[in-house]
């Protein structure tokens, strides 16, 4: 007798490399998959409700902050569905007169959230690879399509960052 199938709810963003799984074209033996494709901002907000889905995509930075705070309601799996080259996360106007990353010092940079994974990677390579003084930059947090975007976790800014 076959065991009863495992009901497994999964929430992922709409990536081309997971569509076959999410729309049921890939079957897993003894698993009844209940898939929900959501916008990444909706999915990342689910970390506050770990019971919303059995498996969900989560911001790596948010997971690390939860783990550092001792929150153990989720277990990380080494699967990274978002495949984005983070060096492409900086945009400057063509007429800005900048020749390289060091020219960002003394400028203002708009970000959606300080604790966003993409922003952490960008600040990391600016600081480590290009020796950009992050404290010389004025950081402005705002929404991409609407003002007033707020952090989803408590943030303790490093010295010199405002």
Give an account of the 3D structure:
The chain has 162 residues and is of the alpha/beta class. The protein is 20% helix and 15% strand. The protein is built from four helices and five strands; from the N terminus they run βαβαβαβαβ. It has helices spanning 19-22, 40-45, 60-68, 117-130, and strands at 6-12, 31-37, 55-56, 108-111, 138-141. It has a three-stranded parallel beta sheet with strand order 2-1-3. The chain is elongated, with a radius of gyration of 19 Å. It starts with 5 loop residues before the first strand and ends in a 21-residue tail after the last strand.
Short account of what is shown:
This protein has four helices and five strands, in the order βαβαβαβαβ. By secondary structure, it is an alpha/beta fold.
Describe the secondary-structure layout:
Elements: E1 6-12, H1 19-22, E2 31-37, H2 40-45, E3 55-56, H3 60-68, E4 108-111, H4 117-130, E5 138-141
Parallel strand pairs: 1-2, 1-3, 4-5
Number of strands: 5
Q: What's the overall average pLDDT, rounded? A: 84
Please bin the fraction of helical residues.
10-25%
Succession of helices and strands: EHEHEHEHE
Determine the strand fraction and express it as a percent band: 5-15%
Low-confidence stretches: none
Please give the count of helices: 4
Q: Whole-Å distance between the termini?
A: 63 Å
Coarse shape: elongated
The secondary structure category is alpha/beta
Largest sheet descriptor: 3 strands, parallel
Strand order of the largest sheet: 2-1-3
Radius of gyration: 19 Å
């Amino acid at each position: 007798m076959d065991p009863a199938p495992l009901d497994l709810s999964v929430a992922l963003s709409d990536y081309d490399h997971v569509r076959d799984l999410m729309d049921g074209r890939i079957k897993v033996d003894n698993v009844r998959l209940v898939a929900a494709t959501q916008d990444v901002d909706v999915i990342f907000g689910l970390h506050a409700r770990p019971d919303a889905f059995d498996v969900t995509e989560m911001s790596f930075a948010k997971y690390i902050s939860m783990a550092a705070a001792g929150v153990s309601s989720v277990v990380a799996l080494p699967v990274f569905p978002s495949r984005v080259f983070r060096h492409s996360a900086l945009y400057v106007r063509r007429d800005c007169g900048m020749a390289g990353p060091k020219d960002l010092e003394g400028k203002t940079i708009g970000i959606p959230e300080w604790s966003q994974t993409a922003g952490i990677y960008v600040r990391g390579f600016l600081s480590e690879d290009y020796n950009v003084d992050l404290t010389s930059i004025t950081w402005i947090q705002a929404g991409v399509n609407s003002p007033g975007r707020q952090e989803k976790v408590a943030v303790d800014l490093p010295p010199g960052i405002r």
